[in-house]
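Appendix B, Record 12. Input sequence as logged:
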Amino acid sequence: MTTKSNTRPVASAARDFLLTDSDFSRVRALIYQRAGIALGEQKREMVYSRLSRRLRELGMSDFTSYLAHLEAQDDSAEWQSFTNALTTNLTAFFREAHHFPLLAEHVKTCAQPVTVWCSAASTGEEPYSIAMTLIEALGSRASNASVIATDIDTQVLEKAATGVYTMEQVSKLPQERLKRFFLKGSGARAGQVRIRPEVAAMVKFGQLNLLAPQWGLKEPFDVIFCRNVMIYFDKPTQNKILQRFAPLMKPHGLLFAGHSENFSYASQPFRLRGQTVYELDARREKGTA
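Logged structural output:
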Protein backbone atom coordinates (compact mmCIF):
# COMPACT_ATOMS: atom_id res chain seq x y z
CA MET A 1 0.00 0.00 0.00
CA THR A 2 1.36 3.41 -0.94
CA THR A 3 1.89 5.73 2.00
CA LYS A 4 0.38 9.17 2.15
CA SER A 5 3.78 10.91 2.24
CA ASN A 6 4.82 9.14 -0.94
CA THR A 7 1.83 10.33 -2.93
CA ARG A 8 1.65 13.93 -1.81
CA PRO A 9 0.64 16.03 -4.84
CA VAL A 10 2.47 19.22 -5.64
CA ALA A 11 -0.56 21.33 -4.79
CA SER A 12 -4.13 20.93 -3.69
CA ALA A 13 -5.53 21.96 -7.06
CA ALA A 14 -6.45 19.26 -9.57
CA ARG A 15 -3.51 18.15 -11.69
CA ASP A 16 -3.05 16.12 -14.84
CA PHE A 17 -0.28 14.09 -13.20
CA LEU A 18 0.79 13.06 -9.74
CA LEU A 19 4.31 13.97 -8.63
CA THR A 20 5.09 11.77 -5.63
CA ASP A 21 7.82 12.40 -3.10
CA SER A 22 9.71 9.48 -4.60
CA ASP A 23 9.42 10.92 -8.12
CA PHE A 24 10.56 14.35 -6.95
CA SER A 25 13.56 12.84 -5.17
CA ARG A 26 14.49 10.97 -8.34
CA VAL A 27 14.26 14.15 -10.42
CA ARG A 28 16.51 15.97 -7.96
CA ALA A 29 19.06 13.15 -8.00
CA LEU A 30 19.07 12.84 -11.80
CA ILE A 31 19.49 16.54 -12.57
CA TYR A 32 22.27 16.72 -9.98
CA GLN A 33 24.06 13.79 -11.60
CA ARG A 34 23.61 15.15 -15.11
CA ALA A 35 24.11 18.88 -14.66
CA GLY A 36 25.22 19.48 -11.08
CA ILE A 37 22.04 21.43 -10.38
CA ALA A 38 21.00 21.17 -6.73
CA LEU A 39 17.21 21.59 -6.61
CA GLY A 40 15.77 22.49 -3.23
CA GLU A 41 12.47 21.28 -1.85
CA GLN A 42 10.94 24.64 -2.79
CA LYS A 43 11.46 23.80 -6.50
CA ARG A 44 8.79 21.09 -6.47
CA GLU A 45 6.19 23.24 -8.21
CA MET A 46 8.69 24.30 -10.88
CA VAL A 47 9.64 20.68 -11.52
CA TYR A 48 6.01 19.71 -11.96
CA SER A 49 5.23 22.62 -14.27
CA ARG A 50 8.20 22.09 -16.56
CA LEU A 51 8.35 18.31 -16.72
CA SER A 52 4.60 17.86 -17.11
CA ARG A 53 5.05 19.43 -20.56
CA ARG A 54 7.43 16.60 -21.43
CA LEU A 55 4.89 14.01 -20.26
CA ARG A 56 2.22 15.55 -22.49
CA GLU A 57 4.63 15.72 -25.42
CA LEU A 58 5.52 12.05 -25.03
CA GLY A 59 1.98 10.90 -24.24
CA MET A 60 2.94 9.52 -20.85
CA SER A 61 0.52 9.23 -17.95
CA ASP A 62 2.76 9.60 -14.90
CA PHE A 63 6.16 10.82 -13.72
CA THR A 64 7.23 7.37 -12.57
CA SER A 65 7.00 6.02 -16.13
CA TYR A 66 8.76 9.07 -17.52
CA LEU A 67 11.70 8.74 -15.13
CA ALA A 68 11.92 5.00 -15.80
CA HIS A 69 12.05 5.82 -19.53
CA LEU A 70 14.97 8.18 -18.89
CA GLU A 71 16.91 5.78 -16.73
CA ALA A 72 16.44 2.89 -19.15
CA GLN A 73 18.46 4.65 -21.88
CA ASP A 74 21.52 6.51 -20.70
CA ASP A 75 22.12 8.00 -24.16
CA SER A 76 18.50 8.88 -24.92
CA ALA A 77 17.87 12.25 -26.57
CA GLU A 78 15.24 12.84 -23.90
CA TRP A 79 18.01 13.51 -21.40
CA GLN A 80 18.73 16.77 -23.19
CA SER A 81 15.03 17.72 -23.11
CA PHE A 82 14.94 16.83 -19.41
CA THR A 83 17.96 19.06 -18.76
CA ASN A 84 16.62 21.87 -20.93
CA ALA A 85 13.34 21.81 -19.03
CA LEU A 86 15.00 22.20 -15.64
CA THR A 87 17.49 24.86 -16.63
CA THR A 88 16.64 28.43 -15.66
CA ASN A 89 17.48 31.10 -18.25
CA LEU A 90 17.19 34.66 -17.02
CA THR A 91 19.29 37.15 -18.94
CA ALA A 92 19.39 40.62 -20.53
CA PHE A 93 21.74 42.81 -22.51
CA PHE A 94 24.44 44.31 -20.27
CA ARG A 95 22.92 42.72 -17.19
CA GLU A 96 24.93 43.60 -14.06
CA ALA A 97 26.26 46.57 -15.94
CA HIS A 98 29.12 47.35 -13.53
CA HIS A 99 31.07 44.41 -14.98
CA PHE A 100 31.42 45.73 -18.51
CA PRO A 101 33.56 48.85 -17.88
CA LEU A 102 35.98 46.61 -15.95
CA LEU A 103 35.96 44.14 -18.84
CA ALA A 104 36.73 46.99 -21.26
CA GLU A 105 39.66 48.26 -19.19
CA HIS A 106 41.07 44.78 -18.75
CA VAL A 107 41.06 43.78 -22.42
CA LYS A 108 42.83 47.00 -23.40
CA THR A 109 45.88 45.70 -21.53
CA CYS A 110 45.71 42.15 -22.89
CA ALA A 111 47.99 40.78 -25.56
CA GLN A 112 46.34 39.95 -28.86
CA PRO A 113 44.23 38.08 -29.67
CA VAL A 114 41.74 38.61 -26.83
CA THR A 115 39.60 35.59 -26.02
CA VAL A 116 36.60 35.45 -23.69
CA TRP A 117 34.56 32.44 -22.59
CA CYS A 118 30.93 33.00 -21.67
CA SER A 119 30.01 29.74 -19.95
CA ALA A 120 26.27 30.41 -19.58
CA ALA A 121 25.26 31.96 -22.88
CA SER A 122 21.51 31.43 -22.50
CA THR A 123 19.68 33.18 -25.37
CA GLY A 124 22.73 35.22 -26.36
CA GLU A 125 22.32 38.57 -24.65
CA GLU A 126 25.41 38.13 -22.47
CA PRO A 127 27.92 36.96 -25.11
CA TYR A 128 26.72 39.63 -27.54
CA SER A 129 27.10 42.26 -24.80
CA ILE A 130 30.66 41.01 -24.32
CA ALA A 131 31.34 41.25 -28.06
CA MET A 132 29.99 44.81 -28.20
CA THR A 133 32.22 45.76 -25.27
CA LEU A 134 35.25 44.28 -27.04
CA ILE A 135 34.48 46.30 -30.16
CA GLU A 136 34.09 49.51 -28.18
CA ALA A 137 37.25 48.91 -26.14
CA LEU A 138 39.58 47.53 -28.82
CA GLY A 139 38.51 49.39 -31.93
CA SER A 140 40.18 47.92 -35.03
CA ARG A 141 41.94 45.31 -32.87
CA ALA A 142 38.56 43.72 -32.12
CA SER A 143 38.76 41.90 -35.45
CA ASN A 144 41.14 39.47 -33.71
CA ALA A 145 39.00 39.07 -30.60
CA SER A 146 36.58 36.22 -30.05
CA VAL A 147 33.89 35.04 -27.64
CA ILE A 148 33.26 31.34 -27.00
CA ALA A 149 29.65 31.10 -25.80
CA THR A 150 28.44 27.84 -24.29
CA ASP A 151 25.40 26.58 -22.43
CA ILE A 152 24.00 23.23 -21.34
CA ASP A 153 20.58 24.08 -22.84
CA THR A 154 20.45 23.41 -26.58
CA GLN A 155 17.15 25.23 -27.07
CA VAL A 156 18.43 28.58 -25.84
CA LEU A 157 21.58 28.16 -27.93
CA GLU A 158 19.46 27.81 -31.07
CA LYS A 159 17.73 31.07 -30.18
CA ALA A 160 21.03 32.77 -29.43
CA ALA A 161 22.55 31.79 -32.76
CA THR A 162 19.78 33.57 -34.66
CA GLY A 163 20.73 36.88 -33.06
CA VAL A 164 17.13 38.09 -33.34
CA TYR A 165 15.42 39.97 -30.48
CA THR A 166 12.30 42.01 -29.87
CA MET A 167 12.41 45.77 -29.50
CA GLU A 168 11.35 45.28 -25.87
CA GLN A 169 14.47 43.18 -25.21
CA VAL A 170 16.74 46.00 -26.41
CA SER A 171 14.63 48.90 -25.12
CA LYS A 172 17.07 49.76 -22.32
CA LEU A 173 20.08 50.04 -24.61
CA PRO A 174 21.35 53.52 -25.55
CA GLN A 175 20.39 54.60 -29.06
CA GLU A 176 24.07 54.74 -29.99
CA ARG A 177 24.50 51.04 -29.31
CA LEU A 178 21.24 50.15 -31.02
CA LYS A 179 22.33 51.89 -34.21
CA ARG A 180 25.87 50.57 -34.10
CA PHE A 181 25.24 46.92 -33.26
CA PHE A 182 21.72 46.05 -34.48
CA LEU A 183 19.74 45.96 -37.70
CA LYS A 184 16.10 47.00 -37.42
CA GLY A 185 13.58 44.60 -38.90
CA SER A 186 10.88 45.57 -41.37
CA GLY A 187 7.87 43.88 -42.91
CA ALA A 188 7.39 40.49 -41.29
CA ARG A 189 10.32 41.34 -39.00
CA ALA A 190 8.85 44.65 -37.80
CA GLY A 191 9.28 45.05 -34.07
CA GLN A 192 12.44 42.97 -34.08
CA VAL A 193 16.18 43.60 -34.36
CA ARG A 194 19.07 41.44 -35.45
CA ILE A 195 22.69 41.51 -34.27
CA ARG A 196 24.88 42.96 -37.00
CA PRO A 197 27.02 40.38 -38.85
CA GLU A 198 30.32 41.82 -37.63
CA VAL A 199 29.21 41.32 -34.02
CA ALA A 200 27.76 37.87 -34.63
CA ALA A 201 30.99 36.79 -36.35
CA MET A 202 32.90 37.32 -33.11
CA VAL A 203 30.74 34.84 -31.16
CA LYS A 204 30.89 31.06 -31.53
CA PHE A 205 28.11 29.10 -29.81
CA GLY A 206 28.35 25.52 -28.60
CA GLN A 207 26.77 23.13 -26.11
CA LEU A 208 28.79 22.41 -22.99
CA ASN A 209 27.98 20.83 -19.65
CA LEU A 210 30.22 22.18 -16.89
CA LEU A 211 30.06 18.74 -15.25
CA ALA A 212 31.32 16.94 -18.36
CA PRO A 213 34.64 15.09 -17.86
CA GLN A 214 36.12 16.97 -20.84
CA TRP A 215 35.22 20.47 -21.97
CA GLY A 216 37.12 20.41 -25.24
CA LEU A 217 38.38 23.97 -24.81
CA LYS A 218 41.95 24.72 -25.87
CA GLU A 219 42.24 28.49 -25.62
CA PRO A 220 43.90 30.24 -22.72
CA PHE A 221 41.22 32.84 -21.96
CA ASP A 222 41.75 36.42 -20.89
CA VAL A 223 38.31 36.44 -19.26
CA ILE A 224 35.70 33.89 -18.19
CA PHE A 225 32.11 34.87 -17.51
CA CYS A 226 30.35 32.40 -15.25
CA ARG A 227 27.52 34.50 -13.89
CA ASN A 228 24.43 33.25 -12.07
CA VAL A 229 25.36 29.63 -12.73
CA MET A 230 27.17 28.59 -9.57
CA ILE A 231 24.12 29.38 -7.43
CA TYR A 232 22.58 26.15 -8.77
CA PHE A 233 25.58 24.07 -7.62
CA ASP A 234 26.59 22.96 -4.15
CA LYS A 235 29.94 24.08 -2.70
CA PRO A 236 31.94 20.97 -3.70
CA THR A 237 30.73 21.28 -7.31
CA GLN A 238 31.50 25.01 -7.34
CA ASN A 239 35.03 24.42 -6.10
CA LYS A 240 35.65 21.66 -8.64
CA ILE A 241 34.59 23.96 -11.50
CA LEU A 242 36.74 26.83 -10.20
CA GLN A 243 39.75 24.53 -10.11
CA ARG A 244 39.09 23.55 -13.74
CA PHE A 245 38.77 27.17 -14.85
CA ALA A 246 42.27 28.11 -13.73
CA PRO A 247 44.32 26.10 -16.28
CA LEU A 248 42.25 27.63 -19.07
CA MET A 249 43.09 31.22 -18.12
CA LYS A 250 45.99 33.51 -18.91
CA PRO A 251 47.97 34.98 -15.98
CA HIS A 252 45.89 37.65 -14.23
CA GLY A 253 42.80 36.59 -16.17
CA LEU A 254 39.46 37.73 -14.81
CA LEU A 255 36.51 35.62 -13.70
CA PHE A 256 33.14 37.38 -13.56
CA ALA A 257 30.53 35.92 -11.19
CA GLY A 258 26.87 36.73 -10.60
CA HIS A 259 25.64 39.31 -8.12
CA SER A 260 24.58 36.68 -5.56
CA GLU A 261 27.65 34.46 -5.93
CA ASN A 262 30.64 34.53 -3.59
CA PHE A 263 33.77 32.45 -4.09
CA SER A 264 35.69 33.88 -1.14
CA TYR A 265 35.66 30.42 0.48
CA ALA A 266 37.92 29.23 -2.35
CA SER A 267 41.22 30.85 -1.41
CA GLN A 268 42.86 29.28 -4.45
CA PRO A 269 43.20 29.82 -7.34
CA PHE A 270 41.40 33.20 -7.42
CA ARG A 271 41.51 36.38 -5.39
CA LEU A 272 38.82 39.03 -5.20
CA ARG A 273 39.43 41.91 -7.60
CA GLY A 274 36.17 43.87 -7.36
CA GLN A 275 32.44 43.42 -6.93
CA THR A 276 31.88 39.76 -7.91
CA VAL A 277 35.05 39.87 -10.03
CA TYR A 278 37.98 37.56 -9.33
CA GLU A 279 41.54 37.55 -10.66
CA LEU A 280 43.59 34.44 -11.31
CA ASP A 281 46.57 34.27 -9.03
CA ALA A 282 49.42 34.23 -11.55
CA ARG A 283 51.73 32.66 -8.97
CA ARG A 284 49.61 29.52 -8.86
CA GLU A 285 51.09 26.61 -10.73
CA LYS A 286 48.68 25.53 -13.42
CA GLY A 287 47.25 22.05 -13.40
CA THR A 288 45.11 20.31 -16.00
CA ALA A 289 41.55 21.09 -17.04
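Strands lie at 115-118, 146-151, 164-166, 182-184, 192-195, 203-207, 221-226, 249-257, 270-274, 277-280.
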